[in-house]
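TODO from last week: model SPFH domain-containing protein.
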Amino acid sequence: MKEHSLRSLPGIPVLLVQLLVLIGCIYAVATSGGLAAQVVVAIGIGLVTLFLAIGLYMVEPNQAAVVSLFGKYVGTVKDNGLRWNNPFFTKKKVSLRVRNFESGRLKVNELDGSPIEIAAVIVWRVVDSAEAVFNVDNYESFVHIQSEAALRAMATSYPYDQHEEGQISLRSHSAEISDRLKEHLDERLTAAGVDVLEARISHLAYASEIAHAMLQRQQANAVIAARTRIVAGAVGMVEMALAELQKSGIVHLDDERRAAMVSNLLVVLCADRGPQPIVNTGSLY
């Protein structure tokens, strides 16, 4: 069921007319002079005027009034201020303001099977008041429940950490993950007339029972990556040193002493601490 506009009358002029009619009825009763017919007519007009006053209602800024007649959707009024429609119409107010909430911390298994804790902030608003009222029972509860379901589904589709080059992970690709979460939410909430403006991860961590082990693994991966880079740089420096020595002809080394020099240079370049040099004051060999 799609939303469509419904015309309504300005409420203040209608209210003023009704007040004047009521004042006239009271005056007619007071000056009836015992005429029963005049009293009956005045009272009848007054009762009808009071009944018509039921059609007055207020619409605030960024709010819509969904109007129905005996269970049938009639239209939506978005004009601000005091409005008037048929007294038999039923009006349900729907806020069109931007709203947000933070989901609870969910414990789920990511793609590799490790338990993690994850939460998200969802920014949303109603864009179709008719769908929000008639397509779901309670659109606010629907948004909260479907948001948590979408967050669970998204979290199980990606690993916590990046294991391969170009792989999308929860921790390293926050922008991409936010876009995917928004897509999941749009698919689930469109039927309720809700538009998701933003969805982003607000909390992400390993579950407490494996947090220490995962921290050790992350530290080990960092150490391995650092060592790999150090070794690669050291090998390049050794190659450059040997090439410069051979090019300048400063010293000529056989294979055995070349290997010893390479070993010493790698030890110096890859060591955690500064080397302690030993000066040879004797012969070269």
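Done. The chain has a mean pLDDT of 83.
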